[in-house]
Amino acid sequence: MNKEKLNELLKEKQAKIDELVARSQASENIDELKAINTQLEGLKQEISELRKLEDDALQQEARSQSKATILATYGLKKEDKFHERQVSDEEKRAEAFVASNKINISIDEVRAITIGSGDLVSPKPVQTSINEKFNEVSSIIEQVNTVSAERMGEYEVPYVVGYSEGGIITEGQDYSDGEPVFNYASIKPVKITIYTEVSEEVTKLTPVQYFAKVRQAALIALRKKVAKLIPLGNPNSTPAEITGIIHAPAITDGSLELTAIDENTLRRIALAYGGDENVVGNAILLINKLDLIAFGDVRGADKKSVYEITPDTSNPNAGIIKEGGLSVRYIINSALPAVSVAATPATSTCMIYGNPNAYELALFSPYEIKVSEDAAFKKGMLAVRGSVFVGGNVVTSNGFVLIEKKAT
């Protein structure tokens, strides 16, 4: 492939990337954003391969020119020439990071990673000499409705609490009132600070790999914290946290109480959600792994398992629990206590069931990351510190059912 054709292909791929980025900024649809992210990763890989071909072509051209002119230039002073490859934006950011030990991740970038990236759901090593451990982030953070609130302060999201019912009157009586009841969910910015450490071995990588590793560590730490605050965040704590599901004013129905997990538990949970007129099929069960094990341990009169548990092969943090014709999606979240553990206090909320889109997560600022080689010098680690302003709240009336441990 000649140089002109390579340049033409590179321009086409970059134009497609620009178009997809513009679409992602305008979209609020989670499935569309995930699809866009997948296309972006593929295009970036194609551009990387094309640039390798471009480098090979330049080197081959340089070798050919050298052979053709060696006799003509023998004995003359030669002027060194270098063919510089175009530096990508990622390389520029990486080199700037190495020089300043500081990263700024924009709202759009954090939002895209929160919604669509598979790399941070099941982290992959940057190179084989730095091995990763199992995923530590509950994927509930990828399921909630994530929005950009940059340059905004506290804001409110309206939601319907209920509708009136028509009445029957006799002649001369006033008409029945029929106004719907509204309420508002307040979402306030809360500063979340992150501190984590990575091996100093990452400094031996290329600038791009070093940048990627530090960025990954900081984003995982942020996602890990927010994934715990989504169910349990307490806005009345000191310091204040984002409003978690169990503290949301929008949830007014009483909790479903359980003393233990038995053959009726899944059915009771699924049918408790959606009000008196609905059985909602797109809900997710947030559950501690110990309670998931307890579901698997339930046996019927025939000593066979009552529940079939099928983990998601692409995301080990999620899966499906089946019982008869009922299927319920689950997401493991270690922040929740387990109802099956004797030491769990009575009235503790142990599971949460509902549509994750009923929770709105707002990103109020870019994610600023700084690196220090001094703080953990003795341990041979690099200290990574980050800060960001986020907020969250349930924005649908009774958007979730709380399942708590019943007092005995």
Please give a structural write-up.
The protein has 408 residues and is an alpha+beta fold. The protein has helices at residues 3-26, 30-69, 89-100, 107-116, 140-143, 207-232, 265-271, 289-297; strands at residues 102-105, 145-148, 155-162, 181-187, 190-199, 256-258, 284-287, 308-312, 315-323, 326-332, 349-354, 359-363, 367-372, 381-394, 400-405. The strands form three sheets. A seven-stranded mixed sheet has the order 6-15-11-7-10-9-8.
Share of residues in helices = 25-40%
Rg (C-alpha, Å): 27 Å
Gross geometry: globular
Structural class per helix/strand content?
A: alpha+beta
Distance between the termini: 76 Å
Summarize the structure in short.
The chain has 408 residues and is an alpha+beta fold. 32% of the residues lie in helices and 24% in strands. It has two domains: 1-68; 107-408.
Name the descriptors.
408 residues; six-stranded mixed beta sheet; 8 helices; 15 strands; globular
Architecture blueprint of SSEs:
Elements: H1 3-26, H2 30-69, H3 89-100, E1 102-105, H4 107-116, H5 140-143, E2 145-148, E3 155-162, E4 181-187, E5 190-199, H6 207-232, E6 256-258, H7 265-271, E7 284-287, H8 289-297, E8 308-312, E9 315-323, E10 326-332, E11 349-354, E12 359-363, E13 367-372, E14 381-394, E15 400-405
Parallel strand pairs: 2-12, 6-15, 7-10
Antiparallel strand pairs: 1-13, 3-4, 5-14, 7-11, 8-9, 9-10, 11-15, 12-14, 13-14
Helix pairs in contact: 1-2, 2-4, 3-6
